[in-house]
Amino acid sequence: MADFPIEAVRGRFPALSLTDQGHRRIYLDNPAGTQVPQAVADAVSRCLLTTNANLGGFFETTVAAQKVVDAAHAAMADFLNAASVGEIVIGANMTTLTYHMSRTLGRTMQPGDEIIVTRMDHEGNVSPWLQLAEDLGLVVRFLPFDERSWQVEEAALKGLLSEKTRLVALNYASNLTGSINRVKALTVAAKLAGALVYVDAVQFAPHGLIDVQALGCDFLICSAYKFFGPHIGILWGRRDVIDALQPYKCRCSSNALPERFELGTPQIELMAGLTAAIDYFADLGAAAGESGSRRQRIAKAFEVSIAYENRLARQLIEGLSDIEGLVIHGITDPERLAERVPTISFTVEGIAPETIVRQMNAENIFLWSGHNYAWEVVHQLGIPAEQGVVRIGIAHYNTADEIEETLESAHRVIAMLRQQRS
Asked: From which residue to which does any coiled coil extend (predicted)?
C-alpha cells in the first residue's frame, strides 16, 4: 500500500462528518480521548441489547456475556503481546486500576522501602505512589527528564536506584511533550537493582506497537478511549508477579486470574467495544496487505499509521516553528520524530494558553490548554501550572488539510492577540 487510506479510515468514524451550524470540526483533542469507529458503537449497543446479563449463570444471555468478556481479554492479549489472557486485567480506567494495584503492591513493602517516580509522567502514575508512600512510610525519589533529549535517561535512573528500591513507575510517552522513553533500557536498569517496573502506556498505545514480553517490565497500563475504544482501562501484569499478589477484594469473589483483580461486575458492554477497537486496528492492517494473525495485522496497522502520523507531526512542528516567540516543549528535530508521539505542546511569550485555545475552539478546532495532568512536567519546565500549555494532539484520522487549517488559525489568532496587547 503506497499511501495511507485516509479517506477509508475517516469513513469509519461517524463523528468526523459532524458539523456545527454548518462548520466542520477538527479533532485535535486526541491525547484526552479519541473518537470511535462505528463498529465500536455497534458492539456496545449490540451487547446491551442482546447479551445484557451478569456472569456466572447457565442461561443464554449470561453465557453470551461471558464470551464477550473472554473475547476482550483475548483481544488485549493480542494488542499487547501478553503471554496469556490471565495477565490482562480490565477495569474502570487507568487511574483507578493504578490506585488499586498500588495498594495491592503496598502489602509487599515496608517502611523505608523506596519508590521512584518520574517528572515526565501523568499524575495517574505519580499520585497513587506518593500517597502509598505517605501511608506506609516509604521513600519517594523523583527522576527528572533530560531537557535536551526530552527523555528519561538511563544514567539518571541508575543514579537513583539502590538496594531499597522496590518499584520504578515510568511512562512510555509524555502526554505533554510527546517524548517516547526507552522503556526497555530503563527496565533493564531497574531490574538489575531488583525493582519492579510499572509502565504507563496510555499516550503511547494509540501511536505505537506495544510488546510487553520484549519490554521486560512487570506491569503496563493503558486506556481504550485513547486508542479509538470506549472508556475503560487495561492493566497487564506479568503472570509470575501478579500470581503472587493478594489484592483487596470481596471474600467470596474468585481467586482466579485475572478475576481477583477485577472488582465488581465488569463493564461487559464496554468490553465488547474494546474488542471492536482492537479489531479496527487489525482491519487496518489487513487493508495494508497483512493477512496473518490478529497480532500481525495490528503490527502492520501501526507500521502504516506511524509513518502517516509522523508526516502530519512534521508539518505541524514546522508550521508552528515559524511563529516568533512560540516555544515547542518537546522534540522538534525532524530526524527524531520516531522518538515522539504526535502530541505537540507550546507556549507563546506574553499570551496565556487558554486565550489562544478559546479563540481556536471558537473556530471549531478542538484542542486543549492547561497542565493536562502533566503536573511534574510543567513544574520541571518552570511553566505556571495554572496556565500550562497549548496542546495539539494528532490521531491517524486527521488530515494534512486539517493541520494546515490549524496552522493558519494559530498564526492568525496569535497575531490578533499580540495586536490587542500592543
From this structure: none
- Please tell me the distance from the alpha carbon of residue 138 to that of residue 27, in angstroms, as a whole number: 42
Q: For residue 258, is the peptide bond before it cis, meaning its omega torsion is within 30 degrees of 0?
A: yes
Alpha-carbon gap, residue 172 to 389, rounded angstroms: 21
Separation between Cα atoms, residue 40 and residue 291, nearest integer Å: 22
Would you give the DSSP letter of residue 151? S
Q: What proportion of the chain, given as a percentage, has pLDDT over 90?
A: 99
Q: Is 325 left (phi over 0), alpha (psi -120 to 50) or beta?
A: left
pLDDT digits (tens, 9 = 90+) for 266-320: 999 999 999 999 999 999 999 999 999 999 999 999 999 999 999 999 999 999 9
Q: How far is CA 288 from the centre of its chain?
A: 24
The DSSP annotation for 347-416 comes to: EETTB-HHHHHHHHHHTTEE-EEE-TT-HHHHHHHT--TTTBEEEEE--TT--HHHHHHHHHHHHHHHHH
Pairing of β 165-171 and β 196-200: parallel
C-alpha 42: how far from chain center: 23
Are 182 and 214 within 8 A, CB to CB? Answer: no
Q: Which three cell numbers stand for residue 340?
A: 515522539
> Per-residue pLDDT for 380 more than 60?
yes
Alpha-helix residue ranges (DSSP H) falling in 145-205: 154-160, 183-192
Does 50 have pLDDT greater than 70?
Answer: yes
| Res 2 pLDDT > 80 | no
